[in-house]
Design goal:
single chain; alpha/beta; Lysozyme-like; six-stranded mixed β-sheet; 5 helices; 6 strands; binds zinc ion
């Protein structure tokens, strides 16, 4: 499995998305699925963490992985958005952009740094691809090992807090 392993500032990510050309032969993207890492945010070590997750997916024999990781200060490109990713065994990969928030969020919401960066990333992606659905992995699979907290209501709270333009509905697709 090939990974990009690129660290980006929000500005660099914005340019990257703005310049991305999507044609009729590219895959149709219609949703964003939010996940979070199995390791806590305190143990995030940039490239070393990327390689840790790369090894993990390799060990599972996966040919694809999540698209992005969002840490406190950076957006990490893991696999190309143009390619179908994989972050679930439940067949919810078609049409999805999989985003891993760095940290464990079973009993708390992401802190302000991850939350703010996520708000801007979601604004960019929903507008670029006309996405109407942002849901947690948990909402598709209760046995996913991902928290129900990083779901629609949390994204709505980000909209209000950071005044980002994210037009989504509660419907799941
Ligand atoms: Zn997940």
């Amino acid at each position: 499995m090939k990974i990009l392993n690129r660290k980006m500032t929000l500005k660099a990510f914005q340019d990257y998305i703005d310049e991305m050309k999507f044609g009729i032969f590219d895959r149709k993207i219609d949703r964003i699925i939010l996940h979070h890492t199995s390791s806590p945010i305190e143990s995030w070590q940039n490239s070393a963490s990327m390689l840790h997750y790369w090894r993990l997916y390799e060990s599972r024999g996966w040919k694809a992985g999540p698209h992005l990781f969002i840490s406190k200060d950076s957006i990490w490109l893991f696999t190309p958005i143009k390619k179908e990713g994989k972050a679930s065994t439940k067949g919810i990969n078609k049409g999805s952009i999989h985003i891993e928030l760095v940290g464990r969020y079973f009993d708390k919401y992401p802190g302000p740094e991850v939350a703010k960066l996520t708000a801007h990333v979601l604004e960019l992606l929903t507008n670029k691809f006309k996405i109407k659905t942002i849901r947690s992995h948990y909402s598709y699979d209760e046995n996913s090992n991902c928290s129900p907290l990083v779901d629609f209501p949390w994204v709505v709270s980000l909209k209000n807090k950071y005044l980002v333009n994210i037009n989504i509905t509660k419907d799941i697709c």
